[in-house]
Design a protein that fits this description.
- It is a single chain.
- The protein is an alpha/beta fold.
- It has a single domain, classed as Rossmann fold, CATH 3.40.50.
- The chain has ten helices and six strands; from the N terminus they run E-H-E-H-E-H-E-H-E-H-E-H-H-H-H-H.
- It has a six-stranded parallel beta sheet with strand order 4-3-2-1-5-6, sandwiched between helices.
- Helix 1 links the parallel strand 1 and strand 2.
- Helix 1 crosses helix 2.
- The chain is globular, with a radius of gyration of 16 Å.
- The two termini are 23 Å apart.
- The N terminus is likely disordered.
């Protein structure tokens, strides 16, 4: 990464929220509940301003505010320096950063700053983000029940014996969004995100 990238002044680990979706009440419930649960963990979330990222951010922001535990750097949204007008009109929560002028620079920054990536639905661009995460050996948590790229990646991983009997992984494709969200949090806890030494020795649960 270039030395010119902005500094995020926080010692907590970040989880990248990746994906996209159109009108989908089930995915709305998934993101809202996930934000609720993540607010109770000692982690931050980061996204590129996609719909799942913003939905999770809104929910997490509400819970942290209600608990009087709000810290702006627990919720980070990153945009390109030359973003489009729609990006600039997005409701802003937490900390906002501007990085690079193209999508590749933005992705590199997001993945560089993250300890794991949660994939919710998504199409081609999400798949490209997942491939980059896999190249960087970043743990990928595909919420299969959300559809799209997340489901395709979940299917890909499910063919490995490593995950077939892993209860939390199987639940990522449970059609109940609350069960799937709980499974995401369980996997994050297994990754021991708050212990860098364990992360280094244990390696990622869902890196392929």
């Amino acid at each position: 990464m270039s030395a010119a990238v902005p500094l995020i002044h926080s010692t907590i680990p970040y989880v990248l929220i990746s994906g996209s979706y159109q009108r989908n009440r089930t995915n709305d419930k998934l993101c809202t509940y996930l934000g609720n649960k993540l607010a109770q963990q000692n982690i931050g979330i980061i996204s590129g301003g996609n719909k799942p990222g913003l939905k999770v951010s809104e929910s997490m922001n509400k819970i942290l505010t209600d608990l009087n535990q709000y810290e702006h750097d627990k919720i980070v949204t990153v945009f390109r320096r030359k973003g489009n007008k729609d990006e600039l009109r997005i409701k802003r929560i937490g900390s906002i950063y501007f990085v690079g002028n193209d999508i590749q620079e933005l992705r590199e920054f997001l993945i560089y700053k993250s300890k794991a990536i949660i994939v919710i639905d998504g199409i081609t661009k999400t798949r490209e983000e997942v491939l980059l995460a896999q190249e960087r050996n970043l743990p990928v948590i595909p919420v299969g029940m959300s559809g799209g790229t997340a489901y395709n990646v979940w299917i890909q991983y499910s063919k490995s014996e490593k995950y077939q009997n892993e209860a939390s992984f199987v639940k990522l494709n449970n059609q109940n969004p609350f069960i799937a969200a709980d499974a995401v949090v369980s996997i994050l806890n297994d990754l021991t995100l708050n212990d860098a030494k364990k992360m280094h020795t244990k390696k990622a649960l869902l890196s392929e």
